Amino acid sequence: MKPIRVLIAKPGLDGHDRGAKLIARALRDAGMEVIYTGLRQTPEQIVAAAVQEDVDVIGMSLLSGAHNYLFPRVVELLKEQDADDILIVGGGVIPDDDIPALKEAGIAEIFTPGTTTTQMIEFIKTNIKR
Amino acid sequence: MENLIQLSLKGNKRACAKLITLVENYPEEAEKVLKEIHQYTGKAHIIGITGPPGAGKSTLTDKLTKGLVDQGYKVGIIAIDPTSPYSGGSILGDRIRMQDLALNTNVFIRSMGTRGYLGGLSKYTKNALKVLDAAGYDYIIIETVGVGQSEVDIVKTADTILMIMVPGLGDDIQSIKAGIMEIGDIFVINKSDLFGADRTATEVNMMLDLSMNMDRRPPVIKVIASKNEGIDDLIAEIKSHIDYLKESGRLIERRTKNLKLEVVELIESELRKIVITHTDSENRLDKEVINILNKEKNMYEVRDEFLGGINGKKD
């Protein structure tokens, strides 16, 4: 069976990737192939990597506060590439008030502090579009 | 699928990526795709980059690719990292060292997990390679997993093999052992600003001087990939190796030999399927294994019985 492929990305100017690495590890242990691209990625780089790697999911982690621009920008670029079948989730320090607009923009789910890795894995497994 | 193939041949990256997914995961579709693209393959030059974990294979791949792209070539990269034998998952982190390449229109990078395959590649690396070859990439770089001493499958796949070494990984006895040290076409001492680089280079040179039956002695070159030093020399050596392969007829020889192995493997895997499905009704294999354990039979008798079953079916 084809393993689920996930791109874990750190968009923008945010040098903190403990969380992203932890998630990558948890998804690996759940049997997924996790592509980690490193820090400070532009939305363009994230989308290019997602297209070349043909991932099922993009998970973005952001703690800097620029999520309202960067997350929707990734969705927009994916649409331009006809790759909007990819499931997009986000996580990090995201204020509750921002979440409805992000979901409206096409982010399937936002995982805030306190979410367990099991919840994320379940969400991905039930929501990927195959 | 036909549409994907046409788009990929024209250079569409999304189509190319989708085809790689097909040939990596779905054997029936893979067969159809590979049959269709067969006539477009064989043009790319395949560079294998191998060496121990942490030697700088990804960084070197990044710099080498930039150098080749600057010279006007299109470069495809297949970067392989290990799959967990426990969960089946993997962390594919080679792209971290290749961030600047993501947006380059002349570069395509694909990460693959080994998925239980032990030779330093993944089982379907060759399939992915053919998709990239057909898509028009001039050079395809295969970066193996970090290897130990005997993961030499890259020999069966690449035209030019770069063996990446770093100072300080052991004494000169390491360089006279069999296996991984015998497969390099070009030896690259990376991190050559570190203490011991000259000694490592000398040891490799001495090892190579002992190999009498070579019509081409592999060069040993020192680079510092992170600082982009020595990369031009490396590209020159790769091109010189390509010239040698072509002029000496070794390229055809090498590819013919590898192709033969690939065909044999293909036949073997099909035979295995036939033996198991045609003769393993009612878990016969499991029962016979118990018989072997209990010393009621030996494994050669069991083999003959299984193969006899196939012959019986033919008649």
Automatic annotation (TrEMBL), chain A:
Residues 3-130 form the B12-binding domain. GO terms for molecular function: cobalamin binding; isomerase activity; metal ion binding. Keywords: Cobalamin, Cobalt, Isomerase, Metal-binding. Signal peptide: none annotated. CDD domains: MM_CoA_mut_B12_BD. The keyword Membrane does not apply. Its cofactor is adenosylcob(III)alamin. SUPFAM superfamilies: Cobalamin (vitamin B12)-binding domain. It comes from the Bacteria. InterPro entries: Acid_CoA_mut_C, Cobalamin-bd, Cobalamin-bd_sf. Gene3D superfamilies: Cobalamin-binding domain. NCBIfam families: acid_CoA_mut_C. PANTHER family: COENZYME B12-DEPENDENT MUTASE, METHYLMALONYL-COA MUTASE, MITOCHONDRIAL-RELATED. This is Cobalamin B12-binding domain-containing protein.
From TrEMBL, chain B:
Residues 43-187 form the AAA+ ATPase domain. SUPFAM superfamilies: P-loop containing nucleoside triphosphate hydrolases. InterPro entries: AAA+_ATPase, GTPase/Isobutyryl-CoA_mutase, GTPase_ArgK, P-loop_NTPase. GO terms for molecular function: GTP binding; GTPase activity. Keywords: Chaperone, GTP-binding, Hydrolase, Nucleotide-binding. It comes from the Bacteria. Belongs to the SIMIBI class G3E GTPase family. ArgK/MeaB subfamily. NCBIfam families: lao. This is Methylmalonyl Co-A mutase-associated GTPase MeaB. The lineage of its organism: Bacteria, Bacillati, Bacillota, Tissierellia, Sedimentibacter.
